[in-house]
From TrEMBL:
It comes from the Eukaryota. Coiled coil: none annotated. Pfam families: COX6B. Keywords: Disulfide bond, Mitochondrion. InterPro entries: COX6B-like (IPR048280), CX6/COA6-like_sf (IPR036549), Cyt_c_oxidase_su6B (IPR003213). PROSITE patterns: CHCH. It is found in: Mitochondrion. SUPFAM superfamilies: Cytochrome c oxidase subunit h. This is Cytochrome c oxidase subunit 6b-1. It comes from Tetrabaena socialis. GO terms for cellular component: mitochondrion; respiratory chain complex IV.
Amino acid sequence: MGNQFSVRADSEVLLVVEEEPAPPPPPAPAPKKAKATVVTLESLSAEELDELKNEVVSELVTKIAGEDGEKLQDFLEPELITAPYDPRFPNRNQARHCFVRFNEYYKCIYERGEDHARCQFYQKAYQAMCPSEWVESWQELREKGLWTGKY
């Protein structure tokens, strides 16, 4: 841009000069990269291996437990889930309810597959209410082909 002159009515001359902006400084040169060396586990000393193991373990613990250990409580104490009320079984004796949920689980697996959400519900329900000895004996009977149920 050029210079600009303006004249006032009282005959004073005012000189206004607009300067062109300075060009931006050139970018800083990028630091030279050192050649990457390949490190294998066999090339590390015993102390370096121990240090590496400790780093990996501490990173995993931080991921699982969180920075301040806030997730650790959830990890150590899983949520307890019990079977909801079922009007088909109003009595205190829940043996039949347990048996039916066990059968419903295997029926669901047969019809929908193991990963279906409803099947997971039935599994949690029978695991919460059935004694483990019963479940083990029923699973043994299923493996031997002596189970009385259809599924």
